[in-house]
Amino acid sequence: MLARAGAGAAFAVGGGSVVGAPAASARAAVPDGDLAYARLLVALELLSLDFYSQALRAGRFPATLELRRARAAEKQHYDAVAAVLTDAGQVPATAQDIDFSYPRGSFGSQRAIARLGVRLETLSLGAYLGAVRALETPEFRNHAARAAASEAQHLSVFSGAVGGRRIGPPLPPALPIDRVSDALDAYAS
């Protein structure tokens, strides 16, 4: 997934008014590992935005207000992570850069949407928790922790819709960057 996003689609973390860091020219360079996470998280947020848009278009999930709020949150997450790349002089991927595909029937019923939502939000939560563990840039790490809290809220909506627990494990697992990238490959074509 990281390779597919391309070198020109790199993420820029921190900086600007999005996460409260000083202008790019006034701060130290973002470490390469943080930029790799930024690229991955941009792709993940683009997948989330695509999923929520398709779920809303399908009209089969009754909690449309919650879907709209989650989509708006994913857009804010994308903007914050994309700003990290932009501040580092890289061009973040956009929706036009990646074609997403889903298993057949993913949007055919409320239950199908909720099951896919559980998978994607579990991935997002794990990705952000993994980023918190690995990131070196304090502002980016702060954003990742806050985004993880948001992703956990999204996950609870879908978990409840499939009859699962709305309150998940007390210490959800953090996923390493390679596992997140591999999981994203299943949805990108």
SSE blueprint:
Blueprint: H1 2-5, H2 16-19, H3 32-58, H4 64-87, H5 110-134, H6 138-161, H7 177-185
Helix pairs in contact: 3-4, 3-5, 3-7, 4-6, 5-6
Explain how this protein is built.
The chain has 189 residues and is mainly α. Helices cover 62% and strands 0% of the residues. The chain has seven helices and no strands. The chain is globular.
Q: Would you report the number of β strands?
A: 0
What is the string of helix and strand elements? HHHHHHH
Largest sheet: none
Instruction: Count the DSSP helices.
Output: 7
Summarize model confidence as the mean pLDDT.
87
Strand content: under 5%
Q: Which residue ranges are poorly predicted, with pLDDT under 50 across at least 5 consecutive positions?
A: 1-26
**Strand pairing plus helix content: what structural class?**
mainly alpha
The global form is: globular
Helical amount among residues, as a percent range? 55-70%
Distance between the termini: 9 Å
> What's the alpha carbon Rg, rounded to whole Å?
16 Å
In short:
The protein is mostly helical and 189 residues long. The chain is 62% helix and 0% strand. The longest helix has 27 residues, at 32-58.
